[in-house]
Amino acid sequence: MKRKIVACLLVAAMMAGSLVGCGKKEGGSGSKGAQSLVVASANFSQEFSPFFASSAYDMNIVDLTQVSLFGLDREGALIKNGIEGETVPYNGTDHTYTGIANMEINKGTDTTEYKIKIRDDIKFSDGEKLTIDDVIFSMYVFADPSYAGSSTFASLPIIGLENYQYNSTVTANVTDEEINKWISKNVSTNTDFQAKITEIMTKVLEAEFADCQFVMESEQNKKDYASYIGTAKSPVEIMVNNLGQKKLDAATLTDENIVAEVLKLYGSDYKKLSKSLVMQGDGTDTLFDADVANVAKTMLLEEKVASGEGKEVPNIEGIKKISDTEMTITTEGFDVTSELKLSIAVAPLHYYGSDAEYDYDNNKFGFTRGDLEKVKEKTNNPLGAGPYVYKKYENKIVYLEANEHYYKGAPKIKKIQYKETQDTDNIPGVQSGTIDAAEISGSKNNFEQIKGLNSNGETSGDIIYTNTVQYLGYGYIGMTADNVKVGNDGASEASKLFRKGLATVIAAYRDVSIDSYYGESASVIQYPISNTSWAAPRQSDPGYTNAYAVDVDGKQIYTDGMKAEEKYAAAAKAALGFFEKAGCTVKDGKVTGAPAGTTLKVEALIGAGGKSDHPSFGVLTDSKEALKKLGIELIITDLADPGTLFDKMNNGQAEIFVAAWGASSDPDMYQVYHSSMADGKGSNNYQIKDKELDKLIMKARISDNKEYRKATYKKCLDIIMDWGVEIPIYQREDATIFSSERVNTETLAKDITSFYSWKNEIEKLEMK
Length: 768
Known about the structure:
This protein is about 35% helix and about 15% strand.
């Protein structure tokens, strides 16, 4: 459950406001010509390494001290011509982007070659020149078999990468079937294998028990996670209850020995433990399978190498150095998402690694293979080629100074402080002069507070300047096709019609609820894709339409100038048309009967903390009343523990569910909508299984033509909407606020977006 609780808390934190706080500013905030900018932040983990930083707050420091191989434009597309510069329009304005490298993509029959060229005038902050050796060193760190950071570089299908990680040419010949046979043979006899399985089980149990402790830490936590706690009185009792093991007696166990005692009971039987872990395994026995298979594959390969099969692999075949400024990377096939994974941070070999251990021609790449301890030693003290130089972390403040060697020019603001502070003090801190900038959630209350401070009554005025961006993701209401259907087939035309009847009613009540919850800080969206994406349909695009705004005959439901009550009546009438064509009996404006196997009672799960506190809660309550009049019962279940919602979604047990997606810079739909990702194998919680949709997703994935991909994704979105499994609800805003009195806001980057922040042009920013 740990992953789920943490994810929920992060979402809650982002909604409540982050990177905020107050504190006395060093050097006299607000003085004319001040050269120090104070930025509020949540707590740092002090992992400021370009290799190992994971939290958003540590990444802010990485962003300012490092350079990436490639950057993104304001819509999240990769800039492939950074050396010469690339001009891309956004909202009618041309913006020019520069970077440290160019990328040329050459598609072959079975492989793709990425030719990379870097500038020859880039220096790290210590004056050392950045060369292609630094790029190769960084790639080998990310690809090392012992690497355990957040980078996805190692998932690239680079030729020879897997062989290198296992140090054997036999890797490609090892099949899943062979691995499974090896597991069956060794799981009960191989003590080394059993020990590694126990390590895997231990980590999960420790994480599970940490959750048990967390939910009992405070009275508020106990209320928020009441369904998870149940009748338990202690963390140990929660753990025992969740395992459902009668052989465990909570009265005889302690915080210190609970994990060890559980392991004694299960030994290395990871299948049995998986079934017992109710919150994570939910009765299945596959929780540990992937990790166990990886261990088994490594041990199997070690056996093969020891017996003389295959050869050792000294390098990654698909990574080739051409010169001090050029290299190539060759991958199997073509996947448009690969280019984004190549946008790695380029770290200095001479600092994080060792020049003495780098000899490209002799397969030495700056560190001992399989040992990144030397790289990790610099985690708390970063060095790079970014706009600022890390000086120190002291008294919960990160001190940065301008990098005089920065390739875009030394920043005009000579010093920056990132200060850990409390989120409730962000707006007062900017007002009083103890903070110059802070990131906040775009809530109705926050914006009203800012308007009250500015003399013009606006969010940008004489005290505070506010820059809003659309959040990288969107809120939605989903349905599981296998559970909300007509008869036995969730993919049938009748099932789609039935769900579209429900969706038509729900969609009609979005505007009022979202405006009530967010005000101007969120907007209703019409397609199941984040508006931040370049692939999102725009109103000016051909074929654009509002969500569930046509009836069963394809005619528009609404007309211009309709009042709210007229709109609701039109939606109800259209919904009845869908229900009737789906096979339901409709009489006197009401559904009076349903086809065999179809229920007129559906449950909607929403993680509103058991307090109705959710932007979509009002949508559901209004829809419930409207559907009741139509003869359909909508049951709203408000879950105190959001983890329960995600469990039911992931395990295909939900009928209707309320959630939000986090988006990436590429609109690839494979993980969420492809048939192969259904049935618990991915994030296709809707259980969409559509061959035409699958084909379109793959066509878009193997094309690098942006306009073709956008048109193809529009077809995908239309199919998803036709299934009636997802109702797009809202796109909310986040905001960065600046002191109008101390920061020259005219020098801020223009048209800031989720992909292009104010930090992207920080070298131009000035204080007053």
